[in-house]
Amino acid sequence: MGAEMPIFTVFVARMVSPELHLAAWGSLVFPVSMVVEGPVIMLLAASTALAVDSENYRRLRRYMLWMSGILSIAHIAIAFTPLFDFVAHTVLAVPAEVLEPGRIGLQIMTPWTAAIAWRRLNQGVLIRYGHSKEVAIGTMIRLVFLVGALAWGLLFSGYSGIVVGAIAVALGVTAEALAIHRAVTPVIRNEVAAAPVAKNPICIGPFMKFYLPLAVTPLMTLFIQPAGAAGMSRMPETMASLAAWPAVHGLIFLLRGSGFAFNEVVVALAGLPNGLIMLRQFARRLAGITVGILALIGFSPLGALWFGTVSGLSPELTSLSAAAIMLAVLMPGYQVYQSLYQGLLVHHHQTKGISEAVLLYVVIALAGLYAGSQWCQVAGIYWAIATFVCAGISQTVWLRVRTTRFLHTP
């Protein structure tokens, strides 16, 4: 899934007015869509932990439908009403030329939240019952539809980059949700139905106590995406920073992806004999490998090769992006450890510490972005990434403190 943004950049950078449409995607469409869907992201962890029998799954599905419906209405309100102008112009203060492309892209992305909610609920069931291969197959289907739509748009459509890109992303995630639905149906019918009935079925009160800290976690984290765009919009080299952001963020996310996925692995395996020992060993290796790869790209000519030749960015954006990666080399490493600590807290149903850590991240990130909007003298993307790294390290340290007693559990 982490390949989605780099693939998006590769195609859109080769269409008409690439800087404009990459900036519209990076400053408006993608961050706003991510913030709206934020509360449903942790349905995957919740489903992995709580879908222990048919009744619990049905209740989780009902909660998911309510959340996705309400959030889809919020997305529509932003994309199709004057609320868009308030968000884009007043709150984010993006350049005027990206407003209309951003509006169109956000409208096309309307199915995004509901598809994500349905997909993540059922991915959790697949992971819990040992069918993670089907999760990977669903992601491959998503990428096939993404690449197919982007290639069609580049070669045959004549549409703008933001239209083609938004259609491709929305189509890909919808196809993945349908594939996961097809894969999970026999698992629900045969394995979930045959599971022992839980002594205490989940109900709305305990579920919200368990889930709200999880839901707030990605919501606060994802809120930093538009906050970062708003900050860069008030810093030097605005258009270049916003245009480079999808390519830079995409590469970082690609290498952080295995760290994100590690969260559900920890939830599922932490209770097994020697599970914690093996998970900690794996975390060290994964963190070292992903940091090493990003460092190799950032501190060698591979950066210019990736952003210039592969991604197709202009020489100016290539130079800006390659330098920005140097500041982000620790991100994949601390993401692995965040997932290790968060997974342990979810496994032990102690999710409050996750919200505390994310709140710390948000406070530091917002303070840093505000300081940058007042005093930054370098390209905004440099300041934003440095701020995110400082905030992310602080978040990881707090999670480590809150997880200390579980790290020594036999």
Q: Write down the domain tally.
A: 2
How many strand units?
A: 0
Share in β-strands: under 5%
Helicity level: over 70%
Helix and strand sequence: HHHHHHHHHHHHHHHHHH
Would you identify the regions where 5 or more consecutive residues have pLDDT less than 50? none
- Span between termini: 34 Å
Helical stretch tally: 18
The coarse silhouette is globular
Output mean pLDDT. Answer: 89
Structural class: mainly alpha
Radius of gyration: 21 Å
Features:
410 residues, mainly alpha, 2 domains, 18 helices, 82% helix
What does the model show?
The protein starts with a helix and ends with a helix. It contains 18 helices and no strands. Helices cover 82% and strands 0% of the residues. The longest helix is centred in the middle third of the chain and has 34 residues. The protein folds into two domains: 202 residues, no CATH class; 205 residues, no CATH class.
